[in-house]
Please model this.
Amino acid sequence: EKCLHTLTHHQDKVQGLQWHPTDAAVLLTGSFDRTAAVLDVRATASDWKAAGKWPVSDDIECVQWDPTNPHRFFVSTDAGNVTCHDARHQGQGPVFTIGAHTEACTGLALNPHVPGLLATSSLDKTVKIWDVPNEKCLHTLTHHQDKVQGLQWHPTDAAVLLTGSFDRTAAVLDVRATASDWKAAGKWPVSDDIECVQWDPTNPHRFFVSTDAGNVTCHDARHQGQGPVFTIGAHTEACTGLALNPHVPGLLATSSLDKTVKIWDVPNEKCLHTL
Model:
């Protein structure tokens, strides 16, 4: 339970981050200072201050590495845009920009199985599916009734998408379906506004939801409409982050507006550490 490094390379609140998919020491971060940064955490403090940065025109909501191209990363902004950047060319503008939504783009999910297939979510209540190479919107999904806060592709089924909304439902849908089927997407009710959603990487039938009341709920995707399998009262304020360990079944990390990160033994619904 030791802090190895405190990185101060951004000048405003840091909204998102992700480790590189193949280089274990490289971290991507995005901030309301309107820059994305790529840095090696093995470096010194002076090197972090001089981290490679890429400017964007608006406050950053999400960042994600391209899982099929280790040199590219994507950024979404509060203006609704998505930009693609080349990590080999520090400081340069975007390779391309997609005007994805009319309000803040709150979620960004590149499909790990289908290169160039991107899903985005927004405060405009929509989810969009994009053909990135052609910068073309394939589908606009309107199955939620309020702002959509998070989304994730299924870990093994390339066409299945999980979404979570402030309409207090999580939804699972097949993006190959028709518009009428999307409207009738499988939904699971929760008691509060949804902050995050994530598939269980070690159990393809389960997904987790975190809420603005600080709870984490587990759901069985085979039983549409049913309540949670279990609920963990994880935090005293909104649970803003949810990370299931892909290597250790049942190990969960959560973050919150209560200024804590907690590590959970999910099978026993037990908090192992509060950081």
